[in-house]
Amino acid sequence: MADPHTPPRRRLSLVIPAYNEEAGIRQAVAEADAALASITSVYEILVVDDGSSDGTAAVVAEEARRRPALRLLRHATNRGYGAALRTGFEAARFEHVAFTDADCQFYLDDLSSLLPLTDVCDVAAGYRVGRQDARQRRLLSWGYNAAVRTLLGTRVRDVDCALKVFRREALAELLPQSPGFFVNTEMLARARQLGHRVAEAGVRHRPRLRGSSKVSVLRDVPRVLGALLPFWWSRVLFPGVQPTSPRVATRGLESLALVALIVVAALFFFARPGTPLQEPQEARFAEVARQMSAEETWVVPGQPFADKPPLLPGLVMLSYRLFGVHDWAARLVAGGAGLATVLLTWFWGRRVLGARPAFAGALVLCLSAHFIYLGRLLTTDTLLAACVVAAWAAAHAALAGKKVPDTFFKKVSGTFSRGWWLLSALACGLGLLTKGPVALALVAVPVVAYRWLDRRTARPSPAWWAFYVVTAVGLAAPWYAAQEIAEPGFLVDFLWRQHVLRFAAPFDHEEPVWFFLPRLVLGMLPWTLLLPGFVRFLGRHSARAAARRPPALGFVLLTFAWSLLFFSASGCKRATYVLPVMPPLALALGCYLDAVIARGLAARAGSALARHSAAFAYRATQLVLVAGLAGSLVAPAVGLLRWPVAVLPAAAAVGGLLFVSRPQWRARPRAAWGLCVAATFALLFAGVYGLLPNYARKFSLRGQVRPLAEAGQEAPLPVVCYPRRWDSVSFYLRRDDVQVYTPAELPQLVEALRAHRETLVFVKSGAPLEALLADLPPGMEFVPHGRQGTVTVGRVRYRLEAPAALYAQAGE
Fold it and tell me: Over the stretch 287-326, which tens digit does the pLDDT of each residue have?
């Protein structure tokens, strides 16, 4: 009978990779043989000569003749540290497999403290105590270990310690693929994902006495980091599978969902198209298109419109040709761009994430108040968002390859689609015609980063990357050339001043770096309430959670993060710049809703997850209804609604709160989320239909200008603006001869007023109006017609009782 106090018999294989270690390999073999003999009676030592160019193999072969436990394995060429370890692991015969380096920096007697840990764990990892490396190397190691623990969740304090023991059955699932020094990180990360237990014990460390280290900080640290980030991205963060094609039985439901999405988006973007144009941006683009239509040209009129590329005003010009010159005709283009962005977001998600995430993401987007408001504005950012989303979607489709997790470190990739690549380049080129080089910057960076981070994607050759840039730039180049010919110096002003200087040294609209964050969080409520859970979802390292994160989600998040970073880093910021940021964020939240809520509820109905989801939807619905009630009460106070009209939405919000307070909604998750969607839709539609037109009137001059245009007269009065241009004046008056004077040109303005008996003047209220009145010559008066916002309109004329000599001075 076996003695219960006798340690169990363990058979151990020790792998020692060696490359040009002739100076110290004899000592390494001798120490290993002595240490293993003191630990167990059955062991083997496998030295893997990784294509050494010195006498390493000869020394090991000589030692093997007098050490029965020693075996020599050889690579004909140098294949790398990881490849040498794999060769040794595959050749090992015993149930416990350890490895160490050939530099004799470890006391192999410490295997006696690691080996017993494998009785209860799958991996026993050492960590260096009293590490004897140089300070620089210790610092780099500390930083690397912190990064690995954070990104990969290894929970090991010294990932690269070259003294570890594995149970053979666990090692079969952890065989390294990395050919280099990334092997330790790879194996421990896979152990964490697969649920293998890892134990740690301190091991002694000593200086290297012979030979030289094969690790170069300048060479291998960047190489290891270059392996770490793609490994983390594609094997830990987004290792899920691409969606499959929908079953025939579900295609009808998918088509119905798409129709519903189109109807909802169209209601938001085309409701109340007669909403007046707001100053300054909307009126500016409507007027540019009017002048282009009058001149029958695609070249944008000169100053002050030279910084506006032609695509948006060109589309508005076409709308004028079809429907006439009206503000609602201009708004049709903005609404079409908003609707197109929603549908492109759906298409993007449908192709790379699946039908349910695509529908959820597109619905989140068109049920976000900030997107609806900004997407209806007649600005280049509305159209830029559609072009950029189209370019992202097509580039993603071109690069998306087959999933090859077992060949991460091999040069294997998916199939490259040239057609989608061309479509992406064309969409990017349209972006260049919409707002300039910012489109290429938004598209190119996440595409290049995704290609580097995810090795499952296709590998376009350098020629195809050049083709992309040439196609995008070539599509826009003819207009840039024509504009330079028409306005010499245009390219310098447009490319340098309007883009580089606005970004790096802003001369207007300077805002803090966090400018867009509150607008995103508040403007996309209630959906941004999902963000804390989404962040936790991304941070989970278990294989089950990781399987729900498909590769496409990684690209979507890259586009969101880069576009937000790009616009936040810019010194010049406008609220509309955030438009391209919202579609990928909405798509990511849609993917999270599908992965965590929809699938989880289907599999675990009535569980704690289901109850939590229902409670979350219930609170989100309450938040929406409270916001609706607050808006109904505040709107009359700020002049957006009359009190009798505000009673109806307030009563509806109160009734909704009473309805959702019923206990059964908290236990019915799908119904609770349906209520949340319905309440959000009702609130947004009420805002678009009832509040938005009144809000726009506060920033529009249509109420002042249109009556003047409709009155008309046989001899139209001269029209001037002071101290800046208001494009609504020329747009609604249909006048191309409106004169603009700056404060420095006030004397010239006074002379122009003296030259005419009567002049129609649009002047900024306050100090500019007071300055103008103070400089008016005797015998002239300002007769106000009214005030809208900060602009006062009136007529400057000679007083009726003025002497006839003054009229003679006016040339009459």
Answer: 888 888 887 777 766 555 666 788 888 899 999 999 998 9
**DSSP-assigned beta bridge partners for residue 100:** 163
∠ CA 227-230-234, nearest 5°, is 135
> In this predicted structure, which of 429-443, 584-598, 647-661, 784-798 has the lowest mean pLDDT?
647-661
How remote is the C-alpha of 460 from its chain's centroid? 22
SS (H, E, C) 330-346: HHHHHHHHHHHHHHHHH
* Region of 155 on the Ramachandran plot (φ > 0 left; ψ -120 to 50 alpha; else beta): left
Q: Tokens 């966090």 appear where?
A: 514
Spatial CA neighbour of 311 closest among 452, 426, 154, 469: 426
Judging by DSSP bridges, how do beta strands 70-75 and 43-50 pair with one another?
Answer: parallel
DSSP string, 356-397: HHHHHHHHHHHT-HHHHHHHTS-SHHHHHHHHHHHHHHHHHH
Taken as a whole, the chain contains a residue count of: 812
Percent of the chain with pLDDT over 70: 80
Q: What would the two tokens of residue 742 be? A: 């700056």
Phi and psi, residue 22, nearest 5°: -55, -35
Tokens of 279: 């100053």
Pick from 522, 267, 298: nearest CA to 375: 267
- Residue 637 reports pLDDT greater than 70: no
Residue (of 660, 405, 659, 388) closest to 546 by Cα position: 405
d(CA 538, CA 278): 41
What is the C-alpha R_g of the chain?
35
3-class SS of residue 200 = strand
* CA–CA dist 706, 715 (Å, integer): 17
Structure tokens of 131? 């590490």
Q: How far apart are CA 295 and CA 301, in angstroms?
A: 9
Which tokens go with 318?
A: 């076409």
CA–CA dist 192, 159 (Å, integer): 12
Q: How many CB atoms lie within 10 A of CB 534?
A: 19
The answer to whether residue 647 scores a pLDDT higher than 70 is no
Give the pair of three-digit tokens for residue 249: 């039985």
**Region 529-550 average pLDDT:** 81
The string of DSSP letters for 275-307 reads: PPPPTTHHHHHHHHHHHHHHHT-SSPPSTTSTT
3-state secondary structure of 19: coil
Chain centre distance of CA 649: 36
Q: Summarize the confidence of residues 127-149 as an average pLDDT.
A: 80
602: Cβ contacts below 8 Å, ≥ 6 apart: none
If 0-12 CB within 10 Å is exposed, 13-18 middle and 19+ buried, where does residue 638 land? Answer: exposed
Gap between the terminal Cα atoms of the chain: 132
- The C-alpha atoms of residue 428 and residue 475 are separated, in whole angstroms, by 9
